[in-house]
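Researcher: Next sequence.
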Amino acid sequence: MSEQKKDNAFKRFTQKHAEIWKFIKFSIAGGGSSVVELIVHMILLNSVFASLTGEPVTSSALNMIGITSKGYLYTYLISTTIGYAIAFILNRKITFKADVNPTLSMILYVIMVVFTIFANGWIGSAMTTFAQSHNLSGNFWDLVIKLIGMAIPTLWTYPCNRFIIHRKKKPVEETE
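Model: Next structure:
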């Protein structure tokens, strides 16, 4: 098949299945930002903040979402911020080609992220409790729990990003 035919077939697919193509791009952007987040998370947890993993966090709100040590708190805040910032930029510019007010988009995104962090913290805490009660510990299980915890929020983050945060301005209709 010639390059032009391949390009035309791809273009027809993306036009015919525009919403599927957006979800695919959203997944690629999310996957890419998640890989960076995961790498940063594991490096920070096992090196920079390793000595702080034994220092407890006294905030009941943080304990409620599964953050019990200062090392994990700092690791989580930094890696999650980096991951979400990358995802925001990629989704705004490439996936949805949003053109609404970027400040409003950022505010809405921060609200979604705060909800996601607390929901993810609760989910992660539940998964960690499950893993500990079944003697599933160590870096491998930390990795598995982190990956599952990163995948679950897609259930609400795609619709929020697609229909609320990264919108396009409605075209102005011409009147006669």
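Model: The CA atoms of residues 5 and 81 lie 41 Å apart. The mean pLDDT is 88.
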